[in-house]
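User: quick one, fold this
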Amino acid sequence: MGNDLYGPGYVYLIQRADGWYKIGRTANLEERFQHIRWEMGRKHELVLLCMCRVEHQAGAERMFHRIFQDKRSKRRKYGIGQGVEWFHLDRSDMSKWRKWADIIADEVVYTNITLTDKDWRQQIREIADG
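Assistant:
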């Protein structure tokens, strides 16, 4: 997969230890997650919960953002702000995520990869390679 953010790629769900969730997209999982780790300054434990392989990542991400729009952060604090892809989700939202992921994705992989573990890259490569 190339770096075309409008073509095929992944929509992902990452959980922060403080209860916030990031819904994002990428064609390059390793590069994107490295950037997120850098953004968060290693202040927060980040756990990759789900990766959805999709044909149109921008459209899939936009759909998830609309579904959870009432859960989007509206305050600028600790790297979370309006227009940023962080959401405060609860258990029922996670059920909704699973339902929609199964509908829109070519493949859905649920994980529990902590992005600060030494072998996080290897774990993601193994999943992406299939």
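User: anything notable?
Assistant: The CA atoms of residues 25 and 53 lie 10 Å apart.
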